[in-house]
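input
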Amino acid sequence: MKKSKIFIFIAVVIASWGFSGCTNLDEVVYDKLPVDQFGKNTKEVNSLIAPIYRTLKDVFPSNYFLLSECSSDMAITPTRKGGDWWDGGQFKELRFHTWTPSTNLVKDSYNSAVSAITLCNKIYSMINENPAIENKDQIIAEIRGVRAFWYYTLLDYYGNVPIVTDFNNKDLPKTSTRVEVYKFVLDELNAIKDVVRADVSSASYGKITKGVVYTMLAKMYLNATVWNPAGGAKWQECIAAADEVIKLPYLIEPSFKQSFIVKNQNSQEIIFPIVFSTSDGGNHIAQRTLHYLAAPSLGLKIGTWNGICAMPDYVKAYDPADKRIGWSFLTGPMKDPATGLTYITAHGRPLIHTVDVTMKYGFDADGWGQTEQEDGARCWKWEFESGQNGDAENDMAIFRLADVYLMKAEALVRSGGDIAEATRLVNVIRKRAFDDAAKLKTTVTLEDVYQERRFELAWEISSRQDMIRFGTFLNAIPGWKGVTASKYLLFPIPRTARDANPNLTQNPGY
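output
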C-alpha cells in the first residue's frame, strides 16, 4: 500500500484572545516537514522552536521599548518641525499620559505579546503530541520560559489579562486578575528553573537558561509590592534569586561597551539577548533615532527617521565625569565627511544635536508643539558599524548582569540588609564609569540605587518599571506634564481586543 505523505504546517490562530490587527511575525509559517521524520534530531527541533525567540524582536527597538521609555521620563519622540512623528498623536499621549484603548502602540504592543504566547502554545502542543521528539521535558521548559517572559511583560504593562496555555481550547478566555497572572508566572518559573539548561556558553546564548529564569524570578520578587501587594515584600527572595544568577559564570565586563558592540554575542555580561542579524530581522535603533542627514557623518549608508531622543533632564542628571554619558547619548555637530562642514537641516539650521528639547511651533490646545529637527540627545548605546547599509546585528540584552547586581543592591537596602554589600555591588558598576576613585560610594541609600539604575540602564526598557516601583512614574515632569492619575500605572486593554472578545475586562479608569 502506498502511504500518502503528511506534512506539518505551523499556523497560529489567535482570534480566541481577541486579537485584532497585523503583526510582523512572518516566521509563523516557517517550515514543512514530513510528520514521520519530524523532530528526530536537534536541528529539526531547534528549527521548530526558533520562531518563539524571534517574537522577542517586538520588544526592541519598537513596541515595548517605546511604551517604556516614552511613557517614563527617559525618552521622547517629539513631533518635529514640519509634522514628522505626529503619528496620530500617540507619542504626545505617551508623554502627556493621556493614552487610551485606541492608542496604536498600546494596541500593537498588546497584540505582539498575545501573538507570541499563542505561538508558544502552538509549538508546545506540537512537541508534546509528537512521539518522535526526545528530551521533551527540557524543550517544553524552554517554551514555557519564553511564554513566561511574555506573561511577565503583560503583567507589567497591562496587569489583568487572560491566562491561556492550551492551544486547542478555542473558547473565548476571561480576564485573570493581575495577582493571578503574577502567581501564574511565578509558578511557571519555579516549575522550570531546575529543568532548563544551566550552561552559560555560545550554545545556550539567546535561549532560556537557568540564568534567564532566575533573573526573571528576581524581577518578579523585586516588583512584588506592585504586582501582588497583598502578598507582601519579597526582598529576601529577590536576593536569593539574584545570588543564583551571580554564581553562574557571567561577569561584569571591564568594558561597558562590550555588551553593545556590533559583535556583542561574546559579552559575558549578557544573560538574555534578543538575537539580531542583518539577514533575519535586524536591530533598527540607528534608523529610529538618527537625524535624516546624520548617517554619512557616522559612516552609515542607511535611511534614518529622526525619531526618539532622550529627555533633557534625564541626561542632565548624570555626573559630568560619568563616561556613560558619552557611551549612551549622541550630541554635537553632524558633519559632512567630504567637507568637514556641519550639515544644514531642511529648515536652514546647523545640525547640532542638543540635550535640550524645546517645543516651539504649531501648539495644539493641549500644549503639544513641534520641536526643531536637531533637538535632543540621540541613542548612542549600541555601536553603529561603519558601512552599515541596513539593519544592524547588535543584540539587545533584555537582561544583563549589571541589572542583577543593582536588583540585589536595591533589595538589600529595602530590607535593611547588608548595606556594605549593597555598596560594593553599586561600586562594581560605577568603577568602570568613572576614572576617579573618589566617585565611588562610601555607602548607598535607596535613592543612590535608583539613580544608578537610571545611569546604567538608559534605553534598556527599565525606566517605566523602575519609576513605578520607586513611586515617581506619576510625578510631574516640568515643562511636559503635570501629576497624572493612578490609572496610568497600567495600560488599557485595547478596544479592538475587547470588541473581538467580550469576556475581556477593561483596566480600571479606562
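quick obs: The two ends are 63 Å apart (CA to CA).
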